[in-house]
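Duplicate of earlier report; GNAT family N-acetyltransferase input re-posted below.
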Amino acid sequence: MLRPTFPIETERLTLRPFREDDLESLYAYQSLPEVARFLYWEPRDREESRSFLREKMAAATLEKEGDWLVLAVEWRETGDLVGEVNLQWRSREHRQGEIGYILNPDFHGKGFATEAAEAVLRLGFEGLGLHRMVGRLDGRNVASARVLERLGMRREAHLVQNEMVKGEWTDEVIYAMLREEWDARAAHAPGGSGDGPAQD
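Output:
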């Protein structure tokens, strides 16, 4: 089980559970076609975002495999909610997890997705004791692939036309990292000690 101590702070960001007053900021990006383009859902209206906000607010603890931890990503300098980052506990037996992230396009290009996702990798490996973590994405989502590559994840598979999404066949690309690779990356980071990246 993983019940993080909140807030989780990185160099520029605060990761925390979603709150009721996040509705407008959540709707601001969930309603955008460019955000939904590579995801399974269509742009959402305000009431749909309200419903999903309630689900996100309840996803602040990983108690069993299959659970999702969903955290709001807040830019401390401005207090803006810039997006969300996710961790799924996929298998207890095999110690597997999956990460994901969605950012408001207004905040793209600042490295926020990489910074937030790194904190979630740390939670998975060091908090939950996972052996392996993956990131899955639509093969056309080049920007998301760059995030996973900056995190040091390996591109393991490119599944050609393996899913029907929104009426068209799409490719799926899978990236992965093992705990030993996370530890090695941490050891070679500036100031790294081998016990994980230095806390921001």
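Residues 112-127 form the longest helix (16 residues).

Merging into the original ticket.
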